[in-house]
UniProtKB/TrEMBL annotation:
Organism: Mycolicibacterium hodleri
Coiled-coil segments on the chain, per record: none
Lineage of origin: Bacteria, Bacillati, Actinomycetota, Actinomycetes, Mycobacteriales
Lineage top rank: taxon: Bacteria
CDD domains cross-referenced by the UniProt entry: PRTases_typeI
SUPFAM superfamilies: PRTase-like
Record's protein name: ComF family protein
Length: 207
């Protein structure tokens, strides 16, 4: 009866009767050579790493989580982020104690989504010795970057990221999707200006 009222379907492929199917779980599994280093158009000055391309189940899950209220997908995506975080620690790219700082989001978007899913995912992915500080916010009247050209994204974000909580020590910036790198570059600049040591950016996906 519950399935008739609120039909279950996989957030990655739409398979009925399950919220997250084994096939999609395998698609998000972190391989031995992942996260991969990527080169966004705008260099943030720190390594940028991604868990995969913004396609297939990964893309569908991120969109469902952010735009369709599928908070049940925060867990599966956090599993991938946690595995990526452990891999970065094993490679020596990050060390504990470490602070995860979610990429900034617009307040209007966070209210519409019932909170920031990237922050929730970071909390779910944190391992011993790792804390989460949602220390960045977008200033008012920042446009949604969807549909903007690379140049427009850069102009839209410049000077629009602000620090809303003290952040110090070693930091890993966490994002859902890296496109041009504009948000990451501005976020890194703000964190470094505040005295934090930003080791890298880790994203679930890159476009």
């Amino acid at each position: 009866m519950l399935d008739l009222v609120l039909p279950l379907e996989c957030g990655g492929c739409g398979t009925p009767g399950t919220r997250w199917c084994p096939t999609c779980a395998r698609a998000l599994a972190v391989l031995n050579d992942e996260p991969m280093v990527i080169t966004p158009r705008l260099d943030p000055g720190v390594p940028v790493l991604s868990l995969g391309r913004f396609t297939g189940p990964r893309r569908a899950a991120i969109i469902a989580m952010k735009e369709h209220g599928r908070t049940d997908l925060i867990g599966p995506l956090a599993v991938a982020v946690g595995a990526g975080l452990a891999r970065l620690a094993a490679w020596g790219i990050v060390e504990v104690p470490l602070t995860l700082v979610p990429a900034p989001t617009r307040r209007s978007a966070a209210r519409r989504r019932g909170g920031d899913p990237v922050t929730a995912m970071a909390h779910a992915a944190a391992i011993p010795g790792v804390t989460v500080v949602a220390g960045l916010r977008m200033r008012a009247f920042t446009r949604d970057s969807v549909g903007l050209s690379p140049g427009q994204r850069e102009r839209n974000i410049a000077g629009r990221v602000r620090l809303c909580e003290d952040v110090s020590g070693e930091v890993l910036l966490i994002d859902d999707v890296v496109t041009t790198g504009a948000t990451g570059r501005e976020a890194v600049r703000v964190l470094q200006t505040a005295g934090a040591r930003v080791s890298a950016i880790l994203a679930i996906a890159h476009a």
